[in-house]
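re: the backbone from monday

yeah here it is again, tokenized this time
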């Protein structure tokens, strides 16, 4: 999939665990884990906003588009 989720990178930069993010954002660890692994089919803007607020980052810091090679 050409959309890469860099949630683990942002968590490392902020020295925050997935558990701590889960508690602060109000999303289950399992749902955040699915997102982190790139297995999520979609993400709500409200969820993305909450993650960005807690991690003090922009959506582009978490989501990245990688153009596929032809």
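seq for it, each position gets an aa:
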């Amino acid at each position: 999939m050409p959309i890469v989720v860099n949630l683990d990178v942002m968590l490392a930069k902020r020295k925050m665990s997935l558990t701590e993010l889960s508690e602060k954002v109000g999303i289950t660890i399992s749902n955040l884990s699915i997102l982190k692994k790139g297995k999520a089919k979609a993400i709500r803007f409200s969820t993305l906003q909450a993650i960005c607020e807690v991690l003090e980052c922009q959506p582009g810091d978490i989501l990245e588009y990688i153009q596929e090679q032809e």
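The mean pLDDT is 93. The first strand starts at residue 3 and ends at 5.
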